[in-house]
Design a protein that fits this description.
Two copies of one chain form a homodimer. With 379 residues, chain A is of the alpha/beta class. Helix content of chain A is 31%, strand content 23%. In chain A, helix 4 (99-109) crosses helix 5.
């Protein structure tokens, strides 16, 4: 039996980490970060790493330190607040429309240390951002969000985008910086030739829209798009100025299947708590420590084993006939989707081989305002 | 435009709650709790509410206050730690095998104020629990976990269970209290007659195993099983002493489809951030504020609207032709699975109609040891 560790102590080795846990191999992470930075080093397109994939300031710091970056991308105001101290140019690549959140963005821009830019796709949203900026006496950058085929947010390319750009250009409180378009629907396309052709077309629609905006005499220095699945395709379309990739740092089994040249740097560490049948074991890591929204996780280091079910706190694993998995042993599962999986954890344990070299707070996990609310309620 | 609220202030009304957020209608919650307590008031079977579904001490407190309870059920040591102060009988209805976690359970039992009982399904697990108890000079209760058809953890009914019960009965540090078996595979069965027949058979296997244990001269006062889908079926099988239901308090759309007599008491509050097409709007609540593992969430209060996609931070909603949904309006989405959805939030906002009457910490969210690790690391 293992000796019980002091519950207040930081684990020193892989074996001491309480499960379930999110672990990251620092060497693999750093190689992923360096490889992506190197790709963009030659320019003209640059990288704007997306914080939503890891929500971890230590990883954002490493991405910026590796170079080739215009700044950071965020999906929520909470993420922006968590990393605002790390760079001087933050993009919230998402619509923010309510007064409270717009005010928090304006507060981040106060003092002028960091340029804060947000996506807009409606007159209502644009006016909300501008009103918040004016109320604090600051300027917020805006990018017109263009739907390049994803069918989620964004105005249509061309004249609709130009109309919103015109509205932004004339509005006190905001500064039009350009356009963005996320080809999210193309990130998981397995066939590289198909992914290349379709992302080129999507980005061309964005670049053409940027040209239309400039032809109208409006500023448009930023043309932002892309992700881990298309970084080297969309990032080579002339006129695209930056790529918003995030998942490449930690990776997941879904992007692994896409065939991008990054290592699986993170996984979920579990403990086998039950061995009820020759062909089955059950580990203590389920839906509450990793999501199954892009498929079931993949077992690492146990040939022939596969996860057949994820329940709240259980991964049910089918074993090959000769498996010698005992109750109490550790298992490693690679999640199918890193973004929502990371969001389930408060920390990630950083490893150098089997040694724990850091316990990194996932500071942007969840929604910061909810933690404020608890404090406010005195609970 | 709304005036920006003080970000440190607790919201006073539904309208002031920052989105996405988990909200609970207190009157509905209380009716659900009272209805379940009333069902078990006549006995002989009692209720042991499952904390895993809500992870919220305030809800556990209300469940105990409503009566008919033997104690509380937990799925993790973190949950047990979060609610240990509320009752004198805690069941961890799950296998715990590693030394650190077993020690934390033993620590909870220290002082003798609360009886702590844990499920076991292997000799290795049983010995780990007993060793931790002996090291702290306490006794931990154990239930032999029996697989009643779910195909997850648990030993086979009958002789296998009896063998483990014998081992437990002779082992210093533990006290054999009985058997448990979770018919989890039957909870979502839509047809009530089928659900009734199959849960009766599953519980009969458990009751027969208990009889075998008693016939061997061993103690077996606890026969524990059931859930929200089978509480009134398994709870009426003679010999079952307690039902481990949890989802009935908050409910979800999946259990709504099963046809159990509880109200939908909670939902996710979102804000429409984009209205890009006549038949589409996008709200700011995605996979990171509710899970889709039991299906897509259901839109409440907007006839004809339906969620067609959940991304990390977006719910894409298809609208009927005559919908007048504007950017900035609030939407309510009923999640398909309450347990992992609650686990995404730090608080739930408690409502009396549109008034916020409490901000309840979801104290057992995530894994407590990860928060200790952050503090320990000085990060």
């Amino acid at each position: 039996m293992r000796t019980p560790p002091d519950p207040g102590a930081v684990p020193r080795t892989l074996e001491e980490i309480p499960t379930p846990a999110l672990v990251v191999d620092v060497a693999s992470l750093q190689r992923n970060i360096d490889r992506m930075a190197t790709f963009f080093a030659a320019g003209p397109c640059r990288l704007r790493p997306h914080v939503k994939a890891h929500k971890t300031p230590e990883i954002a710091r490493r991405q910026l330190a590796a170079g080739s970056c215009t700044g950071l991308t965020c999906a929520t105001v909470s993420e922006a607040e968590a990393v605002a101290g790390l760079c001087d140019d933050l993009l919230l690549a998402n619509e923010v429309v309510d007064a409270g959140k717009c005010d928090r963005l304006a507060a981040l821009a106060g003092g002028g240390r960091v340029t804060v830019t947000v996506a807009v796709d409606s007159a209502t949203g644009l006016e909300a951002v501008a009103a918040a900026a004016r109320a604090r006496g600051v300027t917020l950058g805006v990018l017109v969000d263009v739907d390049v085929g994803q069918g989620r947010c964004g105005v249509a390319p061309g004249e609709s985008a130009l109309a919103l750009a015109r509205a932004a250009a004339g509005l006190p409180g905001v500064r039009l910086r350009g356009v963005m378009g996320y080809e999210g629907h193309l990130q998981p396309v397995r066939d590289r030739a198909e992914r290349a052709g379709r992302s080129r077309a999507a980005m061309q629609a964005l670049v053409d829209t940027a040209a239309l905006v400039r032809a109208a005499g409006l500023p448009c220095e930023v043309v932002s798009g892309g992700g881990t699945g298309t970084y080297d395709l969309s990032g080579r379309v002339a006129g695209v100025t930056e790529i918003q990739a995030g998942s490449y740092a930690l990776m997941d089994s879904d992007y692994g299947d896409v065939g991008v040249p990054f290592e699986q740097a993170s996984w979920i560490l579990g403990t086998v708590v039950s061995r009820p049948a020759p062909d089955r074991c059950v580990a203590d890591c389920g839906q509450k420590s990793m999501t199954g929204d892009h498929g079931l996780p993949v077992v690492r280091g146990l040939p022939g084993a596969r996860v057949v079910r994820l329940n709240d706190e259980h991964a049910v694993i089918e074993l090959p006939p000769d498996a010698t998995v005992a109750v109490g042993v550790r298992v490693a599962l690679v999640p199918s989707h890193t973004d929502p999986t990371v969001n389930l954890h408060d920390v990630m344990y950083a490893l150098d081989h089997d040694r724990v070299v850091g316990v990194w707070p996932i500071a942007a996990r969840g929604y910061r305002e909810q933690r404020t609310a608890v404090v406010g309620a005195g609970a």
